[in-house]
Every structure is written in C-alpha cells, then in structure tokens.
Amino acid sequence: MQTGRLHGRSPVHQRPGVIWAAPAFVYFLVFAVVPLVLVVGLSFTHWNGLGMPRWAGAANWSRLAEDPTLGSSIRLSLILTAVAWLVQTPISLLLGVWAAGPGRGRAALSAVFFVPLLMSNAAVALLWQSLLDPNFGLAELIGPLLGAPDGNVLGDPGRALAAMALVVSWQFIPFHMLLYQAATRQIPRSLYEAAAIDGAGRARRFWSITLPQLRHTIVSSSVLIVVGSLTYFETILLITGAGPGTATRVLPLHMYITGFQAFEMGYASALAVLLVAAGTALSIGIVRMTGYSRMDSSREGM
Amino acid sequence: MTTRQEIRRARTAPAGAHARPARPGPRRDGSRRPPFLRRANPLAALGALAWLVVVGMPVYYLVTVSLRTRADYLTAGPLAPPTSPTLDNYRLVLTGEFGRYFVNTAIVTVVSIAVVLALALPAAYAIVRGRHPLIRTGFSMMLLGLAIPSQAVIVPLYLLITRMHMYDSLAGIILPTVAFLLPVAVLVLTSTLREIPNELYEALALDGGGPMEALRTLAIPLSRPGLITVAVYVAVNAWNGFLFPLVLTQSQDQRVLTMGLWSLQGQYTSNVPALMAAMTLSVLPVLLFYAIGRRRLVSGLTAGFGK
C-alpha cells in the first residue's frame, strides 16, 4: 500500500481545512486549558465563590507555609499514593498476564473482575462504607486484614487511611489489569518458543521475557496510578468525609474542602496549582528514573 | 472496477484500531499452541481465584442485601443468602425521587455522547487529512490536555459555569463533562481514521467529492468501531460522573444518580437493603451494557490508554 504524502495541494484532493477542527479545539481551550490558566490567576486572589475575586497578591502562597493541615495532607497523599502503587502494580500485572492466557475459564473470570470498573465512584464509596460499617457490615471480616480485629476500621486514623488505599485499589486494579493484559498479548510468541527450546521454565520465562517486555506498560500504568491517586478524592469524601479528624484529608480533599466547604476559593486555587505541579513533577520523575524516554526498542535483535 | 465497489469492499473489511485484530489471544482450541503454553499454572489460578473473592464478595453483598428484608439483614448477618428474596426494596426506591435522578442522568449521558461525537469526529478527520499547521498545534494541545486533572481545575470551572449562568443545570454538568472526554475521543478517532487508505480518498476525489462527501461516505462508515468505542467511553464516564454534579449543582431537580445515591444514604441510614437496591439500579444499565457488548465496553474503558 502506498501512502506517499502529497506535498502541496494535489489537484484531485480537497483537504479539510482548519475550520473542521476549530469547534473541538476552541471548546477544549475554553473548558480545560483556560481553567488551567485561571487557576493560577485565582491563586493570587481572595474569592468566596460569590461576587468578584479580589486581588490578594501572594497572600495565599505565603499561607501555604503556615497551614498546619497542609503538611499532614501532603504526607497522607504520599502514603496513599505509595500504598496504592505498591498494591495495584503487582496485583494488576500478575492478573493481566494471567488473563492474557488462553482458555474460556479465564475469559469468564476476567469478566467478573471488571465489575468494579463499571461502578461509579459514588456507588463504590457507599458500597464500601456499608461493608466497613462496624455495626452491620463485614468490618469483623475485613478489619483483621487492616489490623483492626475489633472491626473498628473507619474510626481509627491509620486504619481509615489503609482502608481508603484498599478501596481505591479495588476500584482501579481492573483498569490496570486491562492495560497489562493488552500489552502481554502483544509480546511476540517466538520469544517464548525460543526460551522453551533453551529449556527455560515458567518462572524464568516470566522473569526474563514477560517482565522486560512489559517495561513500557509498567511505566505508563505507574504514571496513571500516581497522578490518579494524587488528584482523586471523591470516594474518600463520601466514605470518611476526610475523617476521623483529618486522618484521611489527603491533598485534593484538603483543596476541595477549602474551596467548597470553607469557600476560600483563592487558597483552594493555590492548593490546586500545588497539586498539578506535584503530579507533573512525579510523572516526569518516574519517566526519567526508569529511563523510559531513552529506552531501546524492546524488540531488539528480532 | 468502479470506486464505489472498492469502497464497499473496504467497508466489509472494516479498518480501525478497534476492529478485532488477528492477535494471539484466547483461542477456542489450544491445538495451535505449543504444548508448553497449555499446561495449567496452579499458582496463577489460585491467585485469580483469590481475586475473584476480593471482587466477588462486595458484589455478592450488594446484590443479595438488596433482595433481603431489613429485619432479615439485621438478624441473619450481612453475608447470609436471601432466604426469601423480595423486590420490596426496589419498589420502595422507585416510588421516591429515584426516577427523576435516572432521567437526569440519561439526559446528561445522551447529550454528552452526541456533543462529543459532533465535535471530535470532524476534528479527528481534519487532523488525519488536513494540512493546516494550526491543526497540528490544536492536536498537540489536546494531547497535553489529557494530563489536566479535572479535580485541579474545579474552582475555575465553578467560576466559568456560574458566570455563564449555567450553575445548577444539567447543561452546566454537560459542558465540562464533554470537555474532559474530548481528548481521548479525538485520539481514538484519529487512530481509527488513519487506517483508511489514501487510495480510497483519491478514488472518491475522482468521483468529484469534497471533504464533506468523503466524511459521509468513507470516514464515518469505515470508522464505526472507533465511533462505538468513543460512545461507550463517553457513556460510562458521563453516567458515573460525580465531581461536576457535586460542585456545579445543588437542587433536587437537577440531581443525577451519583448525587442521588449520596442523598439516599442520608435518607436510608438504617435501611441498608434499600440503599443497596438503589445502588444496584444505578449500576444496572452499565452492567447490562457490559453483558451485551463486553469487548466494546472494555476497549471503550481503556480508550486512549493502551500501550
């Protein structure tokens, strides 16, 4: 098939002009890119959500330094993100590799695995709140797994955070499992055949072929987990309301409560800028650290 | 052979990133696999079964509790099977405001699908076929936009929507919902449209068709898999959306399902079975959809994030 690019306008071709793409680009500009610029601007104002924002200079930014809740919410966010990554990555990778294999049993089981992905944040939150309820739910069953033999999970600061990491992982493991499943299916069969001829066992094949071949997927999945865990608060808001005390008041939740419950929209904007900066920095960090950008081809020597 | 026939032939073999590729996936018979790949792996199977319990137990709880009476739930414990299943909880939920929430959610979902497709399809077509430098720029903006978390811009969005006098309306939910689904939609449709060979466009040009004609007779029919993927992706996200309704609406009239569940939680504090029935109802459409077109839904859910 010849798809030579035609330079200049060919006499037969009428190419679509920029007007075709303009509506989508302008729309996205107004509702996604402009807000991103606005949030930086708003972080230099005082605004209670009504009326007009008033110029505040760097007041919100200096307030970051003396906000007692900020330190704890950053710490909680980092813990949640780290735990979410540690739980989700190995489980979703193993499940994905397993689901990529043959057999009807796997297809049927995988079908059940995706159910959490189909539920809304609200449904996931209310379901787990009910499950973790110490009076009626399964707290006595789940509690011991989180170090709460008495079933008091959501009433204890450390356990509540652990429970949130569990819920977030439960919700998103299916998504990452799908990514790994798709990537595993892309691995050339010939690699495994060659390894089998060399007498490599199952574990060896997984270690020396599957894992290296999934490098790119591990990096992209990790970036998604980190950025997701950093910005994500809806489920936590619904289950714990940031409590007990401020034990689950992660950074995005701190931002939401500051903006939409205390109506300090200017300071909330400064927190939002902080969030975006942290997410961007961490993503770039992961990509750099893993050498993703200068990775050699995973198909080398084939 | 006329160009029309050529086009028809291409249609019968749909192109596109989401057409079923001939990939080494699960096969009906393991006969073409080398023997070493057919051996069962007991450890992996055990892990999978363990995960089945982790996923299955909450889902089992959700469905069975919704079918039990309140008294039965309180006395027999949370995991007991429903000895005398009843639909009373569903009746109770459906007599309330739930129908309104359902309709509102359906409106948000359908309109979002229509607007996303109407915006993303011509844009993707221009990105693939157009040559204007601004198109490149716009496409790059969209790709970078993939990384903008909606949570981080929720304060300025609130400002925008209130200034547009759209606060507390379904339109106010739809506007940002569409915006944050656009990049993935454009990305998926772009990769689908790239698959259409140049010859077909040339053949069409010989027949004297302009871009509009090409879009109608070539691009839309041949990119059907991508269009369906985008529709599913938008549907699931719009149906389950919580953040925008949370921040941009307040009155009961404008409540969508996700917000409705939250309000029901206060209403049915001690009536867990009724709450579970409401949640089952809210998840049901997506589950039905999943049962009908699993492959489509799965490709829709991970749209734009593959590889």
What would your notes on this structure say?
The complex is a heterodimer of chains A (302) and B (307). Chain A is 66% helix and 1% strand. Chain A is an all-alpha fold. Chain A has a two-stranded antiparallel sheet. In chain A, strand 1 and strand 2 (54-55) form a beta hairpin. In chain A, helix 3 runs antiparallel to helix 11 (215-231), helix 3 packs across helix 13 (251-260) and helix 13 (251-260) runs antiparallel to helix 14. Mean pLDDT of chain A is 88; it is low at 1-12 and 297-302. With 307 residues, chain B is mostly helical. Chain B has 15 helices and no strands. Chain B has helices spanning 3-12, 42-66, 70-76, 88-95, 98-129, 133-145, 154-163, 170-193, 198-206, 211-222, 224-240, 243-248, 257-267, 272-292, 294-301. Chain B starts with a helix and ends in a 6-residue tail after the last helix. Chains A and B meet through helix 1, helix 3, helix 4, helix 5 and helix 6 of A and helix 2, helix 5, helix 6, helix 7 and helix 8 of B.
